[in-house]
Amino acid sequence: MNALASTRKASGPPSGQVSAAVEVLKQGGVVAVPTDTLYGLAANALNEVAVRRVFAVKGRPEGMALPVLIADTEDLAKFAVDVPEAAWKLARRFWPGPLTLVLRKADVIPSIVTGGADTVGLRVPAADLVRQIVRELGAPVTGTSANRTGKPGLTTADDVMAELGGLVDLVLDIGPITSDYQGAASTIIDMLSQPPLILREGPVSTEDIGEQCGVAVVKFAGA
Question: pTM of the entire structure?
């Protein structure tokens, strides 16, 4: 059987792509979606069975945390608890955008998403298509990069089809990602550390965070 036979590719008007993606996600499927950085693997983050499929698609062992995409800054309070004021300040300044905040997870987030930890990485992507999918689904989605573990991130639907065809249910095609952050993974900052700790530096730099928000941070040695 053709390896791509079970994977559909959706193009055309954004509204149609959103509807197609939501239909798949409601059934526990996995959709490759273009974000503002890379193509990501979206599954309903509140559906444990769907999340397990994401690990299988990536060839990634369970026990490793997955980032979660939400639609609006205000949604932070739905999926994280004890959110410090510094986190709200960063979210209001850099969201939507390539900044992932690691916070104490709310009970609604399954432990499989966080690798069993009590923390979760949350981001509001600048890609309007993804935010609309989350709104219409009524649940956050996983936001891990759409590539096999250990391989480079992907920025076109054709590249996703070539690597993951037959493994995901749907690939949304808007053409190559063209944002300022194209090809770059988001900055990750652990807001539970004192001071906050940059775990991975990306488009939002340590200087951006410190200078523009007045938040003292340190950078992990490997970031």
Answer: 0.91
Q: What is the mean pLDDT of residues 9-16?
A: 85
For 205, which DSSP code? Answer: -
DSSP lists the bridge partners of residue 40 as 33, 145
Domains and CATH numbers, the chain: 8-180 (3.90.870.10)
CA 36 distance to own-chain centroid: 10
Query: Distance between CA 67 and CA 149 in Å, rounded?
Result: 15
Identify the helix (H) or strand (E) that includes residue 149.
none
Whole-angstrom Cα Rg for the chain: 17
Nearest-angstrom CA–CA distance, 92 and 213: 10
Residue 2 pLDDT: 31
- State how far the alpha carbon of 5 is from the alpha carbons of 2, 43, 61, 162, in Å: 5, 20, 26, 12
Half-sphere exposure of 143 (CA within 13 A, CB side): 30
